[in-house]
Known about the structure:
- It contains ten helices and eleven strands.
- The protein is an alpha/beta fold.
- It has an eleven-stranded mixed β-sheet with strand order 4-3-2-5-1-6-7-8-9-10-11, sandwiched between helices.
- Helix 2 (71-87) runs parallel beside helix 3 (101-112), helix 7 crosses helix 8 (242-259) and helix 8 (242-259) packs across helix 10 (275-306).
- The longest helix is centred in the C-terminal third of the chain and has 32 residues, at 275-306.
Amino acid sequence: MLILAGTVPIKGLPLITGELSLTPEGVMVDGYLLDQNRGTAAMLTTVAVVCKEYNLRPPCCVIAGDIGQRDGSSKVYEYLTEKVSELEPKVMAFHYIMPDIRRNARLVKAIKQLKRKPLLIADAGSMYVAKAGGYASYYDIFTPDMGELAFLADEKADHPAYTRGFIWHMDQDAPELIQRAYDWKNAADILFVKGSTDYICRAGKIMKSVSEPTVPVMEAIGGTGDTITGIIAALSYYEEDLIEVCSLAAKANREAGKLANPTPATQVNDIIEQIPRALKINKQEEKVSQRKAVVAENFKDIIYSDH
Length: 307
């Protein structure tokens, strides 16, 4: 089972749980339509689209409204802590949840008691609390942007707002910040660093970098980082090689942005609609690359056999 957990900025929205369904108006959980155009709802919509494309079982969602008062976040923590043993998740993706070190520690303890550890993915507030609580290395994938990477690299900061000023976070500083985050054990097994170049890292080493296609206007569109987390969550439920999952997510997200032909007024849902087509394009390109590799290898064998 794939579990998606987070909050949405809807005042009075109660804790809602259940299977995620995709409708023309937006995504629906437990009879509630979530049509927010960024944040957790953007991640949910992306997961729904990718699961449909790959004929995957729809995920189970644990969602609550929270406008910064922690009430909804507390409900999400408490529900998961109580129910995680019954749910038996294979993958858990955590998104916008107000950081609560004590409640998160209880949840991690409950997860550690499972017979099989699920794959743990964290973005936004869920990533902050994992780092601040000392559990970062227990997670499998973090998806920080450059500012959040600087926070992970700062061993003293317990929130991105308190990242010390001498820790720069320009793109050219990414390799140093990545290494620093791993050295201080403030990184998950894999870091997907979002930026003008996306870096996919493991154990302090940059395994892959993706910078094409370049769609600069996407920087002005809120929610395009949430879509990356959504693609990763869905694909990691389908595919075992997490580095390849992250690489495909980076390429597909960029390709979807290109296909949407965006302007600064474009909404993230316009990009999400293009993700299935972007995934198909990347699959086709991968097949072409594999064929070229086979041809090159066969040609090399012919050359050597002639000698």
